[in-house]
Amino acid sequence: MREFQTKELESLALELPEEVQQYKLAGALEEAQDAIGRWMKKPISEALKTRLRYEQYILEELPLEFPYTEQEILQLFQEKIPDFSSEDLKELERQNIAEWVYIHGEKHYIHNLLRNILDKDDDIRERAGLMEKLTEDKKLLLEKVKEIQEKKEVTEQIHLRTSIRLKDEVFQPGMKVRVHLPLPAKWYQTDEIQILDYTPGKKVTVDDVRSRYRSICIEDTLEENRTFYVEYQMKVRTVYIDLWKENEEVSNVSLREGTDWKISEEEQKEFLKEQYPHIRFSPYLKALAKEIVGGEKRPLEIARRIYDYITEHVQYSYMKAYSLIPDIPQYCARNLRGDCGVQALLFITLCRISGVPAGWQSGLYANPAYVGPHDWAMFYVEPYGWLYADPSFGGSAFASGDENRRRFYFGNLDPYRMTANHEFQQEFAVKKGFMPIDPYDNQSGEIESETQGFASYEVETEKEYIK
User: Is 86 helix (H, G, I), strand (E, B) or coil?
Assistant: First the structure.
């Protein structure tokens, strides 16, 4: 992937020239690239040129994110469901859960559509012969939420090993590589972090334990392809705060350890700002926030109304790469679908518009039966200080009719979290020179050489919970 600076992302707030946009919407990607070439020679601003250069990247990636024609996606579904028809596909489109774009004038469907539908559509699951059952990781989660609510305070020790490796077909002997793997940071709920092992290299940089975008960077020259890994353990402590009882005492707040939970009024202002291109106060999001919040003035109730709106109206959906979306919260609000990070960003943006400080956390959801990337939000109200909101976990609970669990994730988290990123859209301490796999946070790792960055389809990653 090409050279890149994080500041380029701000240009996504700029509209494309109409000619480029029309070609893109029609799926005429080569013509759109040609149009960009012409516009780069015109007397336009440097900011718009930056936007057009980024659009070149988006146009290159779109066919990879949307690889299936209608016939190909039908064949994919029919391998699982022999009687799946084109009418079934149209119905999924009408239900707003089959994402597609035009490429060369023909509909192309998103790469994760089959997984998306099999995970959420009960009728499709039944036709595929997938019996509804409680998975081990879901069982552990339900038990842990119950334990937290009963005991009011739970600490979980988590031991993980994560790794990244170049695929053999892109490896070249003698490559000088720079690898970033995420690490837990000592903030809020996380403490007693120990790095137990990692791949040696010519240069290894471990970010400060209080970094808000923490990683280990390993630099080396590879004569043979190999796996880069880091192994660590930590303790994650959860104190239950019930925000749904009238006149609820805030005594449990005092059980939370450390000084991270409270910040000054001046510090709160940082969490009320726009952050282009995604945390921006667009006319539509301001209008939506006004409708959701109404005349409510109490910060906790404002945040609650926003949480209720997202968990009750936005359906969970696997996404195309975030790097292809010019405005993630607006995408979520307009389409009423999105994954964990998309929903978290909508919550954060609506809170900030409405005067409630809100921030980002991400890393891994890690319980003994499952480890995978996950994002969620925090919001700040007195007298509590920082509180959590996990709209996607809350929305999942809503979809399954579990109101107790939906309410739990307004104010609380389960302790199955490795939190590496406490800010959104940040630079690594050891900076990358090329376009990252994910320019907004680091959950699975990054690799680049002296001459290029590597995309998600050029690397292999693993995440292991060590019992």
Answer: helix
Going by the DSSP 8-state scheme, the letter that residue 270 receives in this structure is: G
* Spatial CA neighbour of 239 closest among 258, 224, 226, 257: 257
pTM: 0.97
| φ/ψ (deg, to 5) at 348 | -60, -45
Q: Which helix (H) or strand (E) holds 377?
A: strand 370-381
Q: Report helix, strand or coil for 198.
A: strand
Gap between the Cα atoms of 136 and 134, Å rounded = 7
Closest CA to 373 of 182, 186, 208: 182
Q: What is the DSSP string of 209-255?
A: TT-SB-EEEEEEEESS---EEEEEEEEEEEE----SSTT---GGGGG
Query: How does pLDDT run across 228-276, given as a tens digit for each residue?
Result: 999 999 999 999 999 998 765 666 788 888 899 999 999 999 999 999 9
Which CA distances in Å does 201 have to 177, 228, 232, 269, 333? 10, 9, 18, 41, 45
